[in-house]
Amino acid sequence: MSSTFLHQRPIQALPSNPSLLSPRSSNFTHRPVSVFSRTGLLVLLFLMVLLGIFIPWSEMPGGLLLLSSGGTKPALTKWRSYTLAQAASFVAKNGTLIVCAVSEPYLPFLNNWLISITRQKHHEKVLVIAEDYATLYRVNEKWPGHAVLIPPVVDTQTAHKFGSQGFFNFTSRRPRHLLSIVELGYSVMYNDVDMVWLGDPFPYLEGHHDVYFTDDMAPVKPLNHSHDLPPPNKKGRTYICSCMIFLRPTPGAKLVLKTWIEELEAQPWSRAKKANDQPGFNWALMKTAQHQQVDLYLLPQSAFPTGGLYFKNKTWVKETKGMHVIIHNNYILGFEKKIKRFHDYGLWLVDDHYSESPLGRL
């Protein structure tokens, strides 16, 4: 898919009589014309029209027109009609996609995450599900075809505030996106963009299980821990993270996603119960596992630690050095706090290594 496209009018020949360029009659005395005078500007404009010189514009939502920074880039509105099926077909490699869902405030985290994936040579299979038009256009302007928007658009002003209804509306779309992808016949890995890859996760996706996931609990597990769904906690459910999931296009995976959607519909957000998508995911895993309808696989804690373990247990980090694959910067709230923590651990790559990202400097 070409990232640029040149549209130029045919160059027309200039009139052989220079006097035709002047708005004055040839009977008047010819005076020097300043380019800054009204007459000079009209002459310059006329020459530009004749030579076919024009300023490229890109149409943006809401009828606004914004100047394209790239000069000869296509109208970005073409991405409005870009479908998930088209995007998946373009991006998938060997039937697999890596997916994230991003709103504009998270673009720096998206770039940081992409740099780490590029280092593992898996970036070409990344599809960004843009949750607003600004993200859709900015990604596709820099990396054509790698972002798609699935209407409706969420409220980006509240979508990044954990515990808000906007955050619930944002995260509750996740199982629908994933279900659409597996129903198209693709395997899909989902990541939140506050993650960093230190290694290649795909060798850890052993066997042909339906759903692979990570434990969000901080207590240390033995290195040879079970890969079964962990037992429920005091609240009666498991504490699996919904931020790192791999699904194969199997009936079992589709059933988990459909059950997850049903759980979210049954337990919507309210001021009293500020829900998010993770409890619903855990209930879905438990319900389908109890009836032996799905083949589940818990990924090793040493390779996929939660932020509550990796950033808070220095002894464990030393003992498992060289085993870490994907680090999740959770167990902390706020953009600035997450960025500072990444900085402190040498995991904020955007400032010095933005050239390694397919998006460059955002």
TrEMBL record:
Segments spanning the bilayer are 35-57
SUPFAM superfamilies recorded: Nucleotide-diphospho-sugar transferases
Pfam (any one): Nucleotid_trans
Q: What is its main location?
A: Golgi
Q: Which GO terms describe its molecular function?
A: UDP-xylosyltransferase activity
Q: Identify its membrane topology class.
A: Single-pass type II membrane protein
User: What keywords is this UniProt entry annotated with?
Assistant: Cell wall biogenesis/degradation, Glycosyltransferase, Golgi apparatus, Membrane, Signal-anchor, Transferase, Transmembrane, Transmembrane helix
Q: Where in the cell is it found?
A: Golgi apparatus membrane
GO biological process annotation, one example = rhamnogalacturonan II biosynthetic process
Q: Is the Transmembrane keyword given for this protein?
A: yes
The yes or no answer to whether the keyword Transcription regulation is present is no
One GO term of the cellular component aspect? Golgi membrane
Protein origin, superkingdom: Eukaryota
Residue ranges annotated for the Nucleotide-diphospho-sugar transferase domain, each copy included: 122-342
Q: What is its EC number?
A: 2.4.2.-
- Family membership: Belongs to the glycosyltransferase 77 family.
Name of this chain's protein: Glycosyltransferase
Q: Which organism is it from?
A: Trapa natans (Water chestnut)
For this protein's source organism, the top of the classification is: Eukaryota, Viridiplantae, Streptophyta, Embryophyta, Tracheophyta
